[in-house]
Amino acid sequence: MNILTEAEKAAGWKLLFDGQTTHGWRNFHQDTITGWEARDGTLATPGKQGDIISEKQFSNFELTLEWNLSSQGNSGIFFYVQDNPQYGAIWHTGPEFQLIDDFNYPKPLNEKQHTGANYDMQAPVKLTAKKPGEWNQTRILVDKGHVEHWLNGEKVVAYNFDSPEWQQQLAASKFATHDYAKVRRGHLALQDHGDPVAFRNIKIREL
Question: Which GO MF terms are attached to this record (predicted)?
């Protein structure tokens, strides 16, 4: 766990979490990280501690990671996040791979709020999340405007920032008044939506 095989190293994969420390991550708008910890090989928060972002920024990449969400929990994985004081939240600039308890969430969910969605933009074509307490695997591919969301081995969302369809969806979303995905290089972010969540095996390969 939290290691790279020789084949992965040869293919250009890098670990973004060493399994023992929080090195490489910090709180949004902060220089250090608090409220999150390396625990039992996971990068975890009990909730209500704030979002964290990667120290490094990325443009075109393939990201894989595993996550475990609490019952009725909500979280997300973001990219292209701009850590600028003018932006008050990670979602103002960064697209989101939604993580949520599809089985027990206490409020009704629309199709663009289920796990795997590009939150409030594209709904997943199918629901493949495992139940809370079980580990799920996410893969995000971002290559020259083309984005794919994979959940537990199945592609559930695909979109292109340059397509007319995506631009129309953006105009109709809550992100229309923000600089959402306008800068195609930025930080990764793990969302603390107030619920316990843990991540592990966070790996990235720049394209």
Answer: hydrolase activity
Measured from the Cβ of residue 147, the count of other Cβ atoms closer than 10 Å reads 21
Q: Specify the amino acid at residue 98.
A: Q
Please check whether residue 82 is in contact with residue 104, taking contact to mean a CB–CB distance below 8 angstroms.
no
Instruction: Give the chain's largest Cα–Cα span.
Output: 45
Q: Are 118 and 181 in contact (CB under 8 A)?
A: no
Pair of tokens at residue 5: 């095989």
Q: Domains, the chain, ranges and CATH?
A: 6-202 (2.60.120.560)
The whole-number average pLDDT for the span 118-130 is 98
Helix residue spans in 16-122 (DSSP H): none
* Residue-wise burial string across 107-136, b where 16 or more C-beta atoms lie within 10 A, e elsewhere: eeeeebbbbbbbbbbbbbeeebbbebeeeb
What is the pLDDT at residue 105?
Answer: 97
Residue 59: name the closest of 81, 30, 88 by CA: 81
Alpha-carbon distance of 163 to 179, in angstroms, equals 17
Q: Answer yes or no: are the C-beta atoms of 104 and 70 closer than 8 Å.
A: no
- Taking alpha carbons only, the member of 200, 202, 207 closest to residue 42 is 200
